[in-house]
Amino acid sequence: MALPSARVVRIWALLAVLPTAVWAGFALTQANIQTSLAHGPLIAAHDGVACAQCHKETRGTVRQQVQAQVRYVIGLRETPVDFGYAAVQSDQCLACHARPNERHPIYRFREPRFAEAVRQVEARSCLGCHSEHRPEIVTAQSTLCQACHEDLVVKNDPVDVPHVTLVAQDNWSSCLGCHDFHGNHAFKPPSKLAEALSEPAIWAYFEGGADPYGSPKLYEGKEP
Questions:
Q1: Tell me, what's the pLDDT at 30?
Q2: Which residues of the chain carry a pLDDT beneath 70?
Q3: CA distance 75 to 68
Q4: Dihedral sign, CA of 67, 37, 140, 196?
Q5: How many whole angstroms separate alpha carbon 143 and alpha carbon 159?
Q6: Cβ–Cβ under 8 Å, residues 92 and 132
Q7: Whole-prediction pTM value?
Q8: Vertex 111: Cα angle to 107 and 113 (nearest 5)
Q9: Where are the domains of the chain?
């Protein structure tokens, strides 16, 4: 017996998932259902923020979205579509968190000279280092500074253990002990390495714990 063609297989697969797709498209347009469908709780700073304040409505009606997804499954469309609400992009983050003192703005990493660095750290997007609907607020490694600063030379180095020594030792986990990546804390870097924030304290912060850099922040996020 001849095997069914790839097109027939795609059609049967579509018929199998179509009821779920229709239900999902409907559910994602209902505010009272969205929260229960979320992948996890919001981080504490976003408590009380409605889904639609970050997830923007996708274009078209539910029917049009289902039709577009059907066309994608059977090979008549090149890209899939989102049902109800689109995934969050950096633009939604920056609507509340853009600030003039940003030390590492994401647009800088879209320059060709950072092409090698972003293979190690996806710094062209807020979501390359930050997460939502999961316990940790930072998903990047504490050694992320290595991607750009392997050739670092500091004139008149103010630290008792010079930066050139730390680089030679591959001691990249110490960077965030003295430096606030975004530069948004009123935090003065120490002049002695022994006074730097500990790596466990930084990791606890990444995982949703207390902010070791202290307060106040120079710019607070806007109300969405």
A1: 55
A2: 1-39, 224
A3: 11
A4: positive
A5: 19
A6: no
A7: 0.72
A8: 140
A9: 6-87, 91-206
